[in-house]
Amino acid sequence: MDLNQLTEAIKTGNRKVASQLTQEALDAKTSPRSILDALIVGMDDIGARFQRNEVFVPEMLIAARAMKESMIILEPILIAAGIRPEYTALIGTVQGDLHDIGKNLVSMMWKGANINVIDLGTNVPPAKFVEAAREHNPQIIGLSALLTTTMPSMKATIEELRNAGITDTKIIIGGAPITQEYANQIGADAFAPDAASAVEVARKLVGSNPA
Amino acid sequence: MPVFRNLAITDASDLLFGIAPKPLALSNGMVIGGGMVYPEINFTLPTMLVTQETMPEVSRQYREMIAGVLKRAVDLEVPGLIVEFETLPPMTENPDWGMEVTHILLEAIHEHKVKHGLKAVLRMTPNDTREMDRPPAMRSGSLWDNMLELFDRSAAMGAELLSIESVGGKEVHDEALQECDIAKVIFALCIMGVRDMEYLWSHIQEIAIRNRVHAAGDTACGFANTAMVLAEQRMIPRVFAAVVRCISAVRSLVAYERGAVGPGKDCGYENVILKAITGYPMAMEGKSAACAHLSSVGNVAGAACDTWSNESVQNVRLLGGMAPVCSMEQLAYDTRLFNQALQDGPLAASMLQRWLVKSDIHLDPQALILAPHSAIEIGEAIVEAPNHYRAGVGAGLAAIDLISDAYRAGRLKLSDRELPWLDQIRNALYDLPEDEDSFILGMMDVVDVSTFRARDYELY
């Protein structure tokens, strides 16, 4: 079966066609891994178009929803075949900060890249990041802040994570006032300037391209 | 129900900086909207936490900022000044901390009045902390109590203007922006937002009356400014952000329906529409607020301002001095220009207004809808509507018509990828039911009801 059509359905956000083609591909005994890869290629394409200012966020969201519909069908098959997302990521807006649009966009992009994302919400204290990291053993932790007065919470969170022995997990920070310089200063592993680049940054950090 | 059934200003040339049909006289003799534009300065901390341990440093920072700003205001002989204290969340959660800073600011204002004759007034803007809990308790709980306590105590201490950037409806609006879903925008702003504003501003007005100060006004900062920033980052279409701005006026208007008298809060760019409707003076910000955020409305925002603000600036060192002092200087010169034009007579003022408008409105739909002639058309759509819901729909349609007409006439640049959104938004607005109850019923099946407490919005 030609999986390019499935990729195209994701790119254009056609939920109905995406789920129909996913089912047809499974019925045709196409490998679940290949189907998943076709979905990820579609999301990668829309992410790249977003980075080139060719589409807006709603178009990305529509694509993400189409992928979600396909995953409803595909996920049980993947699990049965022992194929799980290669990576798990925790994400949250740091303590004292209530802004969540940027965090939500990164979360959406990571999910589209087949990263298992656990969203801790906003105003997340360092201890909650530590607790969730111990529970989920993520490869990536994303910290978001929009206020200059909550940026120090990022530093506090990183210190608490590292002091708790969570040293291998890669920490990515982002938000309007954040810079690479600040990331270096507080010991973050990387800085993602926007949601679309967060996928690339995460992939580089964990050393592989799941797609 | 809406209380403004007619526009206070019907001619675009009368929607002018420095002049409001209902000016506000302050206790120190300043008259806002009485023929002069005043600078309005706001400043905030550099990157640091606000905790019990850091409060001595927080206080030192505010002492330094207010001393520097007031000295510069005296040196540049500003005719009057509004100082806005927009608290940070911990200062609203702990009213004693907020009051410590309020005391510092009021004391400095008093000293400069006595020593130098500087007329200055404090606008108190407690940060709306209700959204710290998810879903937020909008009408009860310690966050609500502490916020009102800070309003009350600061008003009693001498903060003469009360404002807030309230957040009612934001639980749905953030998602609406990401999806560019205009029905959800209207539900968030004109149903949830309006109901929260009615409740909140009744309380603020009561505090203002009891303390003999003024309920000034609110802003759609968390709504339309979020849209503006997302548009600036190319995340959502500019035409969508422009329409959201116009719809947001319906929500911000409720403060005045509940007794506020201006000047509306600086970051409410929709204030130009509200000035046309209410006749009250309005704060605006534009090019001199680039220290806080970028925008594409830097000049046009000044066309009808009564105070001219920098939004906020961190206390960091620049070549010219500390940033709040530099900001004060910029505002002083900006307002001198406005006031010179006013002094030179109607023709001069009208010419400056025209330049402010024409230099921006062909480049961005968000600028176009803030031009005085646009504001009057949008205002008309709002006051003619039978209720807030239909006012939101009417404001949205008026905005789309203004943008489409200007584009077709070659008076507005729009990128190709913006164009399909004009019809999408128009069609979505036309598809909405006429009746508010039907709209609410339909939307309650669509929005994520787990993100808000329906009873706090009288949605059962």
Task: Present the secondary structure layout.
The complex is a heterodimer of chains A (211) and B (460).
Chain A (H helix, E strand, L loop, with lengths): L3 H8 L3 H13 L4 H20 L5 H24 L6 E7 L7 H12 L2 E5 L6 H11 L3 E5 L6 H13 L6 E5 L5 H7 L3 E2 L3 H12 L5
Parallel strand pairs in A: 1-2, 1-3, 3-4, 4-5
Helix pairs in contact in A: 1-2, 1-3, 2-4, 3-4, 4-5, 5-9, 6-7
Chain B lengths: L18 E7 L5 E4 L3 E5 L12 H21 L5 E6 L2 H5 L1 H22 L3 E6 L15 H17 L3 E3 L6 H10 L2 H30 L2 E4 L3 H12 L5 H20 L13 H8 L4 E3 L21 E3 L7 E2 L2 E2 H21 L2 H13 L6 H4 L3 H13 L3 H21 L10 H12 L5 H9 L16
Parallel strand pairs in B: 3-4, 3-9, 4-5, 5-6, 6-7, 8-9
Antiparallel strand pairs in B: 1-2, 10-11
Report on the architecture of this protein:
The complex is a heterodimer of chains A (211) and B (460). Chain A has helices at 4-11, 15-27, 32-51, 57-80, 101-112, 126-136, 151-163, 180-186, 195-206; strands at residues 87-93, 115-119, 140-144, 170-174, 190-191. Chain A is an alpha/beta fold and 211 residues long. In chain A, strand 4, helix 8 (180-186) and strand 5 form a beta-alpha-beta unit. The longest helix of chain A has 24 residues, at 57-80. By secondary structure, chain B is an alpha/beta fold. Chain B has 16 helices and eleven strands.
